[in-house]
Write a structure and sequence with these properties.
Layout: H1 2-29, H2 34-66
Amino acid sequence: MRAIILRRVVNSAVWIVSGIVVVVVRASVTQGGSILVWEIIGGGMVIYGVIRLIWTLVKTSSTNGTSV
């Protein structure tokens, strides 16, 4: 069970870091209207990673609370 939780946390962290990298790289390389598309993509990746991380932590804490 701990391996699954660790995998989900790492997976969420990868989504978050990848989204930040997409935004930073595209902001520094591309200037103009197309940056908005990359900000939406990168921001979506960050939001997805944060939601997965929160869901994993909430699900883990609720599972640990009910275990006897």
